[in-house]
Amino acid sequence: xxxxxxxxxxxxxxxxxxxxxxxxxxMAIFFLIWFMKKSGEGPKS
Length: 45
Fold this sequence. Notes:
Blueprint: H1 2-9, H2 12-39
């Protein structure tokens, strides 16, 4: 497993893919929290 991380982070393509995966996970968490807050507010009108 340690060799896998070393191989992934040794190239710019691996670093970029790790950044994209982390960004997508953080974006999913943000939208999940945001939608949960919006669904509990009720209608505006």
